[in-house]
């Protein structure tokens, strides 16, 4: 938009009532408002990122909660602290009109723990600007200067997951408040400070405060865009269950020279057990693991509209061959998965020792879909192990158990987020798709589900809310890992999307 056009738009906007001006926010005017707000929004994000946010530490939760309370107070929201058995949640509400629909927005405020030594900057919470070079390396720069450079990246823990999206949403609310424009509906916000720990206290809080969470739609401000980095809406998420296996060998580590060929090494037992769980094509061999999952021809046609190929994704992640479950990447995401996320036995590197380990620890995660509940999947895995002759112990085996059973294992499990799925081609789909189209001038990628997990079960299953994730960060953002980053162009587009969503009217029969 040219400068004269911006001035004409702003003059017009200041003279039109708020409810009517929602419709006056065109793609160009949204871009103009975003560009005016962007420098302050970037500064605010940098300040917000500087507050450590590991949900394991109550003092960090409180510091972030205080920041959020102050910010939503400034936006004229009614803010309520919700106490739980663990760490608190924060709820905020802005009533625009008694006859208007209600949208609940979910913001994740906490981040993954950090290993400072693994980051390419002194402090993961002190944001650093970098530019990506042609060879894939990054060069540190002072920050945004001169003409807008969408390729600049802000490196810090939670830049993408998910203080960046939260700040984009807050910035959009700020812009509307400054221009005297009301949202097109009543707005509710729930802020979660322990999402990375599983949001264990969220279900009880939703059950205890059902009246607070009454809404028509749920918009999740969390998650990464499609690999194309096009604007993305995701209509579901897989759940998660985790299992820890301890496979026991001798009562203590043994010298491999003295006892090799005599004392069995539990690593080989573990290897045989794990190998039996999946075939070479990656399909899980546990009986009943996929029961209930069915993809119709129409399901496949809709999900495969996503602009991607398996070849592109293989190149991106650096593998020669993908696993063979499903004919496409999107189809593969519709099934439950079985993953070894950690493995420990003995020592490696400079600490390597010529020993037969006394135990092997295997950490497993299983991603779930609505047709495969976690309790069932965990039971199927345990039964599969039992059928291979393993004797289960509660903790360490007794001497009698060691002398009686050649295969000893302990099995502990935990259920995390439950899966959810919202149907495409429904009112919430039409509303959000139209909003993103208006905000950015192009249609979003619409994904049936994401491979990751989000704690939306209480809202979807208890309250019956249709839920969709509005995804802002770049796909190559290293979330959960060292050197997490957010592309500046994505942050700008996120503000545009939030402005459009907040001003898109909702028509509910």
How would you characterize the overall build of this protein?
By secondary structure, the protein is of the alpha+beta class. Helices cover 33% and strands 20% of the residues. It contains 16 helices and 21 strands. The protein has helices spanning 3-13, 18-21, 27-49, 58-74, 163-179, 202-208, 256-259, 266-277, 297-303, 310-317, 329-332, 374-386, 399-404, 427-440, 457-462, 488-502; strands at 78-82, 89-94, 102-108, 128-132, 138-141, 153-155, 186-192, 217-221, 232-234, 236-237, 239-248, 254-255, 337-344, 355-356, 359-368, 391-393, 408-415, 420-421, 445-447, 467-471, 485-487. An eight-stranded mixed beta sheet has the order 1-2-7-3-8-20-9-19. Helix 13 (399-404) links the parallel strand 16 and strand 17. Helix 14 crosses helix 16 (488-502). The longest helix is centred in the first third of the chain and has 23 residues, at 27-49. It is globular, with a radius of gyration of 25 Å. The two termini are 37 Å apart.
Average per-residue pLDDT, rounded, comes to 93
* Widest beta sheet: strand line-up: 1-2-7-3-8-20-9-19
Give the helix level as a range of percent.
25-40%
Q: Provide the β-strand percentage band.
A: 15-25%
Distance between the termini: 37 Å
The biggest sheet amounts to: 8 strands, mixed
The total of helices stands at 16
Low-pLDDT segments, ≥5 res: 1-20
C-alpha geometry:
globular
Class per helix and strand makeup: alpha+beta
Q: Number of DSSP strands? A: 21
- As an assembly, this protein is single chain
User: Radius of gyration, rounded?
Assistant: 25 Å
């Amino acid at each position: 938009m040219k400068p004269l056009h911006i001035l004409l738009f702003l003059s017009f906007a200041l003279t039109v009532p708020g409810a009517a001006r929602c419709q006056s926010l065109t793609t160009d005017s949204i871009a103009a408002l975003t560009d005016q707000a962007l420098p302050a929004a970037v500064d605010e994000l940098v300040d917000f990122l500087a507050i450590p946010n590991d949900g394991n530490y109550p003092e960090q939760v409180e510091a972030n909660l205080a920041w959020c309370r102050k910010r939503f107070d400034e936006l004229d929201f009614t803010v309520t602290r919700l106490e739980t058995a663990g760490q608190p949640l924060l709820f905020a509400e802005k009533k625009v009109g008694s006859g208007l629909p209600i949208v609940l927005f979910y913001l994740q405020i906490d981040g993954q723990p950090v290993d400072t030594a693994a980051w390419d900057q002194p402090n993961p919470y002190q944001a650093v600007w970098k530019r990506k070079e042609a060879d894939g390396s990054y060069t540190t720069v002072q920050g945004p200067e001169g003409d807008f450079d969408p390729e600049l990246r802000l490196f810090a823990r939670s830049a993408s997951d998910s203080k960046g999206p939260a700040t984009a949403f807050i910035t959009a609310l700020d812009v509307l408040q400054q221009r005297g424009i009301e949202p097109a509906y009543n707005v509710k916000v729930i802020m979660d400070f322990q999402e990375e720990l599983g949001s264990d206290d969220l279900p009880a809080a939703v059950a205890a405060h059902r009246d607070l969470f009454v809404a028509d739609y749920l918009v999740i401000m969390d998650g990464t865009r499609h690999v194309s980095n096009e604007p993305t809406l995701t209509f579901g998420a897989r759940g998660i269950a985790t299992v820890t296996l301890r496979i026991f060998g001798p009562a203590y580590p043994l010298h491999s020279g003295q006892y090799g060929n005599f004392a069995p090494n539990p690593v080989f037992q573990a290897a045989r057990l794990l190998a039996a769980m999946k075939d070479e094509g990656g399909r899980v061999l546990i009986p009943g693991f996929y029961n209930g999952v069915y993809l119709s021809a129409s399901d496949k046609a809709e999900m495969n509209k996503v602009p991607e190929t398996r070849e592109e994704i293989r190149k991106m992640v650096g593998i020669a061959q993908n696993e063979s479950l499903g004919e496409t990447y999107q189809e593969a995401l519709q099934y439950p998965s079985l993953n070894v996320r950690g493995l420990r036995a003995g020592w490696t590197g400079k600490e390597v020792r010529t020993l037969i380990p006394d135990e092997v620890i295997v950490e497993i995660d299983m991603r779930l879909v609505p047709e495969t509940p976690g309790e069932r999947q965990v039971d199927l895995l345990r039964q599969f192990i039992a059928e291979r002759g393993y004797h289960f112990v509660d903790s360490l085996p007794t001497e009698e158990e060691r002398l009686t059973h050649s295969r000893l294992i302990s099995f502990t499990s935990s259920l995390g987020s439950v899966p959810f799925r919202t149907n495409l081609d429904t009112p919430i789909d039409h509303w959000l798709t139209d909003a993103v189209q208006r905000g950015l001038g192009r249609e979003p990628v619409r994904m049936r589900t994401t491979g990751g997990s989000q704690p939306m079960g209480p809202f979807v299953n208890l309250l019956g809310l249709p839920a969709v994730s509005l995804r802002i960060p770049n796909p190559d953002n290293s979330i959960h890992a060292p050197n997490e980053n957010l592309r500046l162009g994505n942050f700008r587009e996120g503000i545009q999307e939030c402005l459009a969503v907040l001003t898109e009217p909702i028509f509910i029969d």
